[in-house]
Write a structure and sequence with these properties.
The complex is a heterotrimer.
Chain A (H helix, E strand, L loop, with lengths): L1 H16 L1 H21 L7 E7 L4 H12 L3 E5 L4 H9 L5 E5 L3 H8 L1 E9 L4 H25 L19 E9 L6 H32 L1 H6 L5 H31 L7 H25 L3 H17 L12 H6 L4 H15 L7 H21 L6
Parallel strand pairs in A: 1-2, 1-3
Antiparallel strand pairs in A: 3-4
Chain B lengths: L3 E12 L2 E12 L3 E6 L5 H8 L7 E6 L2 E2 L4 H7 E4 L11 H11 L4 H14 L15 H13 L5 E5 L7 H16 L3 E6 L10 E6 L2 E6 L1 H8 L4 H15 L2
Parallel strand pairs in B: 3-8, 3-9, 6-7, 7-8
Antiparallel strand pairs in B: 1-2, 1-4, 4-5, 9-10
Chain C lengths: L1 H16 L1 H21 L7 E6 L5 H12 L3 E7 L5 H6 L5 E5 L3 H7 L2 E9 L3 H25 L11 E9 L6 H32 L1 H7 L4 H31 L7 H24 L2 H13 L1 H7 L11 H6 L4 H15 L3 H30 L1
Parallel strand pairs in C: 1-2, 1-3
Antiparallel strand pairs in C: 3-4
Helix pairs in contact in C: 1-9, 2-7, 2-9, 7-9, 7-10, 7-14, 9-10, 10-14, 10-15, 14-15
Classes of the chains: A alpha/beta, B alpha/beta, C alpha/beta.
């Protein structure tokens, strides 16, 4: 027991005196947080669109006006020529072409229904899907406005007082979006990115640290002493465990100050989950260190593994969209569970009951990986 | 109750097809200074690493301080000290911090650590740099530090792997003074070296050639036995058959 | 020239002899594309819907059936009170809920407002909006049905609908994998190139050949060519395997020229390898720092390439930064060739950027080698 304290004390000295390490802990994650939170967004701003207005009525112009005023789009072309519009799609300068048919207003007056063609540029990747969704919303909003103007009997958000009509079935739809009232993309991403950062610290630094001792030969001197595997590993991982939690705190502070992230739920619960998660991350780092010989190798292996974990964690793209077999595989991905937990606590105010499943999986993972890693670590080479 | 502290019988280590240590046998008594000689690559370090529990042998037996190296390697570690060929202490810590770390690991009380480190640092002339990062110390001083860490817990046996490599003659003499001091206090010292002249300082020596012990005994006895004037000459003679066959 | 040939033979021999590494280098990208191709998607399906219906009647059941048969939704829970919803949302069991006010059918019959509340988990804003729109569409459909069966004069009780007729050009199947997979190729090739760099660096450190090569009659440029060429070939094989995979497993179209795509892939791999060579050209103390920097920026690298998140969505500073990310250019090229079927005429600018990057990096490496010789 005393041995752990002596070794941990030495570890702390190492960490404090290592300039690069301090930078890695303080500076790099914050920079990453700022870059990633700003990069990882699906919000659309100023997407270039081309509107082909074949109707040229006040109604169609109204629609174009709505698109322009929505703040998401920038109308870069209005030539009423389909060829010109298509050229824009082909050379990639235009993300969407809106084609308003020549009988737009007439259809609406007559039947109350009219189509508008949205040709989205599929090469733009995910932007295509989002742009389409935004545009559909604008269309729906405009339709609602038209309804309020032309059909006062109908209940819309814009109608002032509903006029009772005997025998006419009318459904009043209210909508409520939970948990992200400002529809702020960063509020969604930052909790997840914090997980990524904490993972990097936990896994990378522990793997690198032990790999370095191997490389320098200092590990050998320790192996010749009576210190046990368990004592050594505890003394090694404990400082990084603390550092990981500090990192989380730093990230939360920056998240609050810069992005005003929500903190609806219990922070102590978040820290508890983080403590558990870090045990897993550190275990993975330890396990990696038993496989490699040099710091360089430790860095590469860790990054590859961490990136795979991150991409499959629901951090960037939703778990619900993954193919079912991938969703099943991701159950053993600890990052997935901590991302779920942190979003649940920070954004939804979830309590222990709501996160009991991912929390248990983390607990089991911690036990498994630490056991594996400790057994893998040998003082004597075979 | 024999005072044999190191007992080695037919110790062997193979790496694939290559036999690094080939059935070596020897004994060392308490308080002896035993020289483990041989050229670079002869297998000295491999043999030592097996004895101190860093490497598992492929065959043979050995007992260190009465403990079997296969089954009780951890028990052995409390009774031994080790100075490796390559500097293996922490460069970003100070000498005092390094000593404190290892003193603590070996179970010394804080008081003991303080007293011994003061004593050792003074003895080695390191008192002035006791609180400078080891990184800034020249090689000879680092070796002295490693030596003192190996002995800080006053072990029964200390293994020194080429402690005098690359140091100047004055420091080399200082080391041997320290080795004698430790030996006269009852510590068994097994010191490996490729400097044949250091053989004269040892009570007994063994010469390893290509993994085998080619000669073992007190330096004076060996010189008489082989009819040579120096251990260096003896070594060349023993090593030569190898160079002839490998020509 | 013969010195170079000798070097190439040696490198090729080393690589071919290490079967395990070779297999990993070619198999890993293939595995990754499958894994990530099925993981990185944004399609919405099987939406977990909860229903609060304390007094079910024919109308609520009719609507509930519509939701169930809409294809996109999956009813996971029916509860009696709104308060029961919260735990379901919090633990993620439900993504959306429809809440019926009791007496729904009665209200409809009387001409009173029959209230429905759609509650959506909007933690992810875009998903939230989409789910809301889907649910709204189902209800609108029911409303239209109700209005149609009423008298014609009150047909005007239904909303005006501007129906979006969505065509996703260049992505007819509308599967999001078509949108992600070409970009994924860039990402996976980047990883493979980094691995190859790491391997060649490790090998060289073990055998200490860099010093030997520097004092040999080989010129710096020859050393570089010798080190890059074999890995370029392996990378090329990987790229080919990935393209085949994209076609077969994900059915991503390849409308343009396969040859052009392979050429661009090779160019992109060259850029990535050149970066690695530049790192290895440095002395070992600088190397560790450079590598830490490279790996530390791998995550931003991935994101700034635009393969998941559109570059257009990023703030201007990051948009500018993304221009130095080689992947960003290759993503555009790959998407263009595969989805749009364009030729060099449309992607020559991006190709030029990649070529310039490769040239600059290689020149810097040559310079570093020359420095070390002096």
């Amino acid at each position: 027991m005393r041995r752990i304290l002596f070794l941990a004390q030495a570890e702390v000295l190492h960490i404090v005196r290592d300039r690069i390490l301090v930078a890695q802990i303080l500076v790099v994650p914050i920079v990453q947080l700022l870059i990633l939170s700003n990069a990882a967004t699906f919000q659309i701003r100023n997407t270039s669109i081309h509107v082909v207005d074949l109707d040229r009525t006040s109604t169609s112009r109204g629609l174009a006006g709505h698109l322009a005023a929505s703040g998401h789009f920038q109308i870069v072309g209005t030539a009423p020529s389909l060829d010109a519009a298509n050229e824009g799609l082909l050379d990639g300068t235009v993300t969407m072409v809106v084609v308003i048919p020549h009988d737009f207003e007439a259809s609406l007056v007559r039947t109350g229904v009219a189509p508008v063609e949205l040709s989205v540029n599929g090469e733009k990747g995910s932007a295509a899907g989002i742009v389409q969704a935004y545009a559909s919303r604008v269309l729906a909003d405009y339709a609602g406005e038209l309804t309020a103007r032309l059909r006062p009997n109908v209940i819309t958000a814009k109608a002032s007082t509903p006029i009772p009509l005997r025998g006419v079935p009318r459904i009043d739809v209210r909508v409520r979006g939970r948990y992200n009232p400002t529809l702020n993309y960063q509020h969604y991403m930052v909790p997840g990115i914090l997980v990524a950062l904490v993972t990097m610290i936990g896994t990378l630094l522990s793997a690198q640290n032990i790999a370095r001792e191997k490389e320098l030969g200092t590990l050998e001197q320790l192996n010749v002493t009576p210190i046990t595997r368990g004592e050594f590993i505890t003394a090694k991982l404990l400082p990084f465990w603390v550092l990981g939690l500090l990192e989380l705190s730093l990230g939360l502070i920056v998240g609050k100050l810069v992005f005003d992230i929500p903190m609806v739920g219990s922070l102590p619960l978040l820290y508890g989950a983080a403590a558990l998660y870090l045990a897993v991350a550190l275990g993975i780092g330890l396990w990696i260190s038993t496989l490699v010989e040099t710091q360089q190798q430790a860095m590469f292996v860790t990054f590859f593994i961490v990136i795979v974990y991150l991409l499959m964690s629901g951090l960037f793209t939703p778990i619900d969209s993954m193919a079912p077999w991938v969703q099943a595989v991701s159950q053993i991905n600890p990052v997935r569970h901590f991302v779920t937990i942190s979003r649940a606590i920070l954004m939804k105010g979830a309590g222990p009951a709501a996160i009991v499943e991912p929390l248990s999986i983390l607990a089991i993972s911690a036990v498994v990986i630490l056991t594996l890693a400790v057994r893998q670590y040998r003082k004597r080479v075979v | 109750m024999s005072d044999v502290t190191i007992e080695v019988k037919d110790l062997t280590r193979r790496f694939g097809d290559f036999i690094a240590v080939d059935r070596i046998s020897f004994e060392v008594k308490a308080g002896e200074v035993f020289g483990f000689l041989g050229a670079n690559g002869a297998g000295k370090t491999t043999a030592i690493r097996m004895l101190i529990g860093l490497l598992e042998p492929s065959g043979g037996t050995a007992r260190i301080a009465g403990h079997d190296i296969y089954t009780e390697s951890e028990a052995i570690k409390q009774s031994i000290g080790y100075m490796s060929q390559r500097f293996s202490l922490y460069e970003d810590l100070t000498p005092r911090e390094n000593i404190r770390l290892y003193g603590g690991i070996y179970g010394l009380t804080r008081k003991q650590i303080r007293e011994r480190s003061d004593r050792v640092l003074a003895r080695l002339g390191l008192a002035g740099v006791a609180d400078d990062a080891v990184r800034r110390l020249p090689l000879g001083w680092r070796q002295k530090l490693a030596f003192s860490v190996a002995l800080i817990h006053e072990p029964h046996i200390v293994f020194l792997d080429e402690p005098t490599s690359g140091v100047d003659p004055i420091t080399r003499r200082q080391f041997w003074e320290l080795i004698y001091e430790a030996a006269s206090a009852g510590t068994t010292v097994l010191v490996s070296t490729h400097y044949m002249d250091e053989a004269e300082y040892c009570d007994r020596i063994s010469i390893m050639v290509s993994g085998r012990i080619a000669a073992i005994g007190a330096p004076a006895d060996l010189k008489r036995q082989f009819g040579v004037n120096s251990i260096d000459e003896l070594f060349v003679r023993l090593a030569r058959p190898q160079s002839e066959t490998s020509a | 020239m013969s010195a170079l040939k000798g070097l190439l033979q040696k490198e090729a021999f080393h690589i071919l002899r290490d079967r395990r590494t070779l297999i990993v280098l070619i198999a890993l990208p293939v595995v990754q594309v499958v894994l990530f191709g099925f993981a990185i998607r944004t399609d919405i399906d099987g939406v977990r819907l909860a229903v609060v219906d304390s007094a079910p009647d024919y109308a609520t059941m009719a609507l509930r059936n519509r939701f169930a048969s809409a294809g996109v939704f999956r009813t996971v829970s029916v509860v009696a009170r709104t308060a029961d919803l919260e735990p379901l949302f919090q633990n993620g069991q439900a993504q959306q809920a429809i809440v019926f006010k009791p007496g729904f059918a009665a209200d409809l019959a009387r001409g009173e407002l029959a209230q429905i509340l759609i509650v959506t988990d909007a933690t992810e804003p875009n998903t939230g909006s989409l789910l809301q729109a889907y649910a709204q569409a189902v209800i609108d459909g029911y409303q239209r049905e109700l209005s149609a069966s009423a008298t014609s004069s009150v047909a005007r009780a239904s909303r005006i609908v501007i129906a979006p007729d969505v065509r996703v050009r260049f992505n007819p199947t509308r599967a999001s994998s078509n949108l992600f997979v070409p970009g994924l190729m860039a990402f996976v090739l980047t990883i493979v190139s980094s691995m190859m760099t790491a391997i060649s660096l490790t090998r060289e450190k073990e055998t200490g050949t860099m010093e030997a090569m520097l004092v040999s009659p080989l010129r710096p440029l020859e050393i570089i060519v010798g080190k890059v060429a074999p890995y370029l070939v392996i990378g090329f094989v990987s790229a080919f395997a990935i393209i085949v995979e994209a076609r077969l497993v994900f059915r991503v179209p390849l409308r343009g020229s396969l040859l052009l795509l392979l050429f661009e892939a090779a160019l992109f791999i060259l850029v990535s390898l050149s970066l690695g060579i530049l790192v290895s050209a440095r002395t070992s103390s600088q190397r560790l720092a450079m590598m830490a920097a490279l790996l530390g920026t791998m995550l931003p690298n991935v994101l700034l390439s635009g393969f998941i998140f559109p570059v257009e969505s990023m703030p201007w500073l990051l948009r500018i930064l993304s221009n130095i990310v080689p992947g960003r250019w290759f993503v555009v090229i790959a998407r263009g060739i595969m989805l749009k079927g364009v030729g060099l005429a449309y992607v020559w600018q991006e190709t030029l950027v990649l070529a310039v990057m490769a040239a600059v990096l290689l020149a810097a490496s040559v310079h570093s080698f020359k420095e070390r010789l002096e």
